[in-house]
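Let us practice reading a record.
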Amino acid sequence: MQSPSAASPDPIALGFHALSDPLRISVIELLRNQELCVCDLCDALGVSQSKLSFHLKTLREAGLVRSRQEGRWIYYSLNIPQFAALEQYLSEFRRLYQILPGRLCQNPS
């Protein structure tokens, strides 16, 4: 039996996982200015469609990109609200800039 967190992955963790790959960062950078089709992304990145499809799937599952089909072409764009959620998560750490020192450990290993 799966735990609730395993059944519904954490969107923050999925987002940071998706951003942990250089090729996926390159995709995000290309989509920053405009929506692009898969063929344009492949050409710009110099990768095969099969390789790119894996990375686009990861970005979609993390909610960082959206896709839409027009005829036989699939177009991708950024999903800005998900980037805002990641930004908000990180901003909480900036708010907690003064971290208190830890207690002395009573049970040394």
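A brief commentary: The helical segments are 4-7, 11-18, 22-31, 38-45, 49-61, 80-95.
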